[in-house]
Amino acid sequence: MNTLKNDTFLRALLRQPTDYTPIWLMRQAGRYLPEYCQTRRRAGSFMDLCRNPHLACEVTLQPLARYDLDAAILFSDILTVPDAMGLGLYFAEGEGPKFERPLREEWAIRNLAAPDPGVELRYVLDAVAEIRRALNGSVPLIGFSGSPFTLACYMIEGGASDDFRTIKTMLYDRPDLLHHVLDVNTKAVTAYLNAQIEAGAQAVMIFDTWGGVLSRRAYGEFSLAYMRRIVAGLKREHDGARIPRIVFTKGGGQWLEEIAAIGCDAVGLDWTADIGAARERVGGKVALQGNLDPSILFAQPEKIAQEAHAILDAFGPGSGHVFNLGHGISQFTPPEHVTALVDAVHTHSRKQRQA
Amino acid sequence: MNTLKNDTFLRALLRQPTDYTPIWLMRQAGRYLPEYCQTRRRAGSFMDLCRNPHLACEVTLQPLARYDLDAAILFSDILTVPDAMGLGLYFAEGEGPKFERPLREEWAIRNLAAPDPGVELRYVLDAVAEIRRALNGSVPLIGFSGSPFTLACYMIEGGASDDFRTIKTMLYDRPDLLHHVLDVNTKAVTAYLNAQIEAGAQAVMIFDTWGGVLSRRAYGEFSLAYMRRIVAGLKREHDGARIPRIVFTKGGGQWLEEIAAIGCDAVGLDWTADIGAARERVGGKVALQGNLDPSILFAQPEKIAQEAHAILDAFGPGSGHVFNLGHGISQFTPPEHVTALVDAVHTHSRKQRQA
Questions:
Q1: Preceding amide of B52 cis, omega within 30
Q2: What is residue A1's predicted lDDT score, i.e. its pLDDT?
Q3: To pair with A142 at 20 to 30 A between CA atoms, which of A90, A134, B127, B192?
Q4: DSSP code string of B124-185
Q5: Looking at residue A321, what DSSP letter applies?
Q6: In the annotation, is A31 catalytic?
Q7: What is the dihedral of CA A261, A265, A270, A273, to 10 degrees?
Q8: How many whole angstroms separate alpha carbon A39 and alpha carbon A56?
């Protein structure tokens, strides 16, 4: 059973009444925090930090020490799964993630196999368990993974891309090959998330960072269909508690109805969506998570509060809203601006419930 | 009066009956064409090419010599206006456009003034006139400009950006300053497009490349409102012919109804929108232009034809569709694939009308 001191986040995801609107921030353990940068320097590389359960736990807890956040999220990378498949993840300084061995040849694609999370991704599960112990029931812990399509983008392009030329050429010319990659990724992500749940994750989120670069039809076939399979394959309960599932496609605002229909409990919104209109579109089907433009955190605290109020007011009364940014927090965010945001969300949403 | 041999494009923009669906491609005069690269080398830099009316005319006509396209578009850059304002546009090799003197200080913003298109942008108007003569009534010529917000993004950031941190900080903290920039840009773009119309442009398009990075409210206030003012300020007729106005916000698929309501004749769609659903949403208000994913041109010709048919079928029978890509054509496109696309659009859309 859930013995959490603060289960507001889990209740909001399940659209149960809450005293206020819970808040957490994508990438809340990150470079905008000086204490994160210190730990990161001690660890060595970014992947050294991810692979060290002690240090991963340390940075996971840092934002919770500073801010009154309603959830913790496992500190890890979305690309641990393809790394465990042997593609050789690395981070070139000042650039995004890259793979030493991008997946391009048919023989390599045919040889691709889902890793055993208990073996190749043991360090993640150890981190989950250690964080759960350290949290000591204060707030819930979120586990996560990249979506099959998003993982495939990096695996096939070999890194970030501005046109996704390689994967899109495969998508249109050799859909059979891409479907094979996505099938393996789906099995891998399902096993990975279930292992995180067993290790202690109390909610899980699928990050579909790149699904929004597809046409509507291609999105349905190559991204959403696989996320649906994952959701269907996840443990619904663990240790007597429901495990809510959040799905987030950046740039997916046009496809909300379809995303809300895959069986997830909550849908993440980027900041281009109007959360009031989104709530009307998905009706009572799912909770919504979002959706402040992370750039608003560069503005002055009064302005931050004003924009947070506008989102809370647009969502309106009733439960089913988890406040968040519409994308990961920027490394250039002044840390004290996050305090202003968290306070604004908690205070205003309590007032809303008293009105 | 219009004495065009092929006015299919203009008729489709005005939702008049046509024998087939017209097609042109954003950035159709560009690096994927070897003949463009040759002219470009002769010209020197990209801006030397833009500033030379003879050569700008030459590259404008190149795709029309190769393909059975239904419109020509002025070869120029979206940033000619801020360049004419004195910001010093340049292109660093392998990078996007940059400004030597980004607009950041309040005094510089207060001093910003709209250029006289007849003086500072004479080279563009000369190119328009020369292209019109060279086209000799074969197909219509499209004039264009960047939107006030998109110009402001480059002017304030000093170049492309992945988070638009500087302009968004200004947007939230000093909206008065940004509104001033947008006001000057709006006057400048209106005068520039009207001058292009007087020089011979038979349709005009506003490219809002970056409006889609805003929240819905910010988009309405800082991008769409200014495009509405431009549309209201454009000459509706010239030389006895209607001058259709196309507005394109990349990433604006969630805001179609609002875009369609600003008084333009047509709305451009990127490839994430379902054109059938878009047509239902905007009703008979405007024509639609789009919306093939440019990456589909990397696929084999049969696949290209199949995807083009799917878009034509999704739009359905009746007029009011101009076929295009959902974004500029990639420099990596095999030129012969464009032939396959143009043929597929013309052939299939003629068949649709016979059904």
A1: no
A2: 43
A3: A90
A4: HHHHHHHHHHHHTTSS-EEEEEE-HHHHHHHHHHSB--SS-HHHHHHHHH-HHHHHHHHHHH
A5: E
A6: yes
A7: 60
A8: 9
Q: Which chain B residues are Cβ-neighbours of A213 within 8 angstroms?
A: 272
3-class secondary-structure state, position A255: helix
3-state secondary structure of B267: strand
Q: Which two tokens stand for residue B26?
A: 């954003």
Rounded distance, CA A269 to CA A320, Å?
Answer: 13
Tokens in use for A34? 């000086």
Question: Residue A162 CB: number of other CB atoms within 10 A?
Answer: 9
The DSSP call for residue B330 is P
Is residue B194 a contact partner of residue B151, using CB atoms and an 8 Å limit? no
8 Å CB contact between B320 and B288? yes
> Are A69 and A28 spatial neighbours (Cβ–Cβ below 8 Å)?
yes
* C-alpha to C-alpha distance for B319 and A330, rounded to whole angstroms: 45
CA distance B177 to chain A (A): 14
Round to whole Å and give the CA distance between B110 and B102: 14
Question: Which candidate, A158, A107, A128, A152, places its Cα nearest to that of A60?
Answer: A128
ipTM of the complex: 0.93
Please give the Cα distance from B246 to B230 (Å, whole number). Answer: 11
Closest CA relative to residue B224, chosen from B235, B211, B234, B236: B211
A162 is catalytic: no
Supply the pTM of this predicted model: 0.96
For the cut 60, the answer to whether the pLDDT of residue A278 exceeds it is yes
Determine, for residues A254 and B251 on separate chains, whether the beta-carbon distance falls below 8 Å.
no
Residue B1: the pLDDT is 43
Q: Which of A218, A254, A271 is facing B215, going by the closest CB pair?
A: A271
CATH class of B8-354: alpha beta
CA A130 centroid distance within chain: 20
Residue A49 Cα, gap to closest chain B Cα (Å) = 26
Residues in chain A with CB shorter than 8 Å from the CB of B251 are 251, 272
Q: Which of A232, A227, A183 is nearest to A206 (CA)?
A: A227
Residue-wise pLDDT for A19-52, tens only, equals 999 999 999 999 999 999 999 999 998 999 999 9
Residues of B with a catalytic annotation lie at 27, 31, 40, 77, 154
Mean pLDDT by 10 residues, chain B (355 residues): 86 97 98 97 93 98 98 97 96 87 96 97 98 98 98 96 95 97 98 98 98 97 98 97 98 97 98 97 93 97 98 95 98 98 98 90
The residues with which A324 forms a beta bridge, in sequence order, are A291
